[in-house]
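Hi R.,

As promised on Friday, here is the backbone we talked about, encoded as structure tokens. Could you run it through your design pipeline when you get a chance and send me back a sequence?
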């Protein structure tokens, strides 16, 4: 998905736009640019599920430190292709002190997840 307001991409499940960068204020701001395949099972699937939890909470205007910590842990302990970059991004996301900082960090995390999932 792509948000023209923030000029940022993100991954989500489902067809209904749920923008994590602007939340409920403009929840439907965005459009599908490319579909990426679900990773199925394994390490990448666990990392992706944790990422999608953050995407959902941010689009609901919620700052969920537990979801962010779970993502950082999944990246750290389970690994993923391109793990060094993703780990650094997960650490930046975990350092966020509020929803604004989390959304800013989520831009970079989303770009890396798209890369990892083969969306380039």
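Update: got your reply. Pasting your designed sequence below so it's all in one thread:
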């Amino acid at each position: 998905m792509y948000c023209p307001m923030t000029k940022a991409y993100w991954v989500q499940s489902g067809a209904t736009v749920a923008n994590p960068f602007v939340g409920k204020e403009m929840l439907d701001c965005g459009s599908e640019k490319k579909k990426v395949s679900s990773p199925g099972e394994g390490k990448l699937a666990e990392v992706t599920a944790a990422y999608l939890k953050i995407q959902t909470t941010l689009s609901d205007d919620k700052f969920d430190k537990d979801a962010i910590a779970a993502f950082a842990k999944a990246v750290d302990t389970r690994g993923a292709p391109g793990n060094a970059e993703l780990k650094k991004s997960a650490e930046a996301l975990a350092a966020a002190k509020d929803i604004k900082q989390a959304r800013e960090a989520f831009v970079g995390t989303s770009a890396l997840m798209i890369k990892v999932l083969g969306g380039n």
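One thing I noticed while checking it: The chain has four helices and two strands.

Thanks again,
M.
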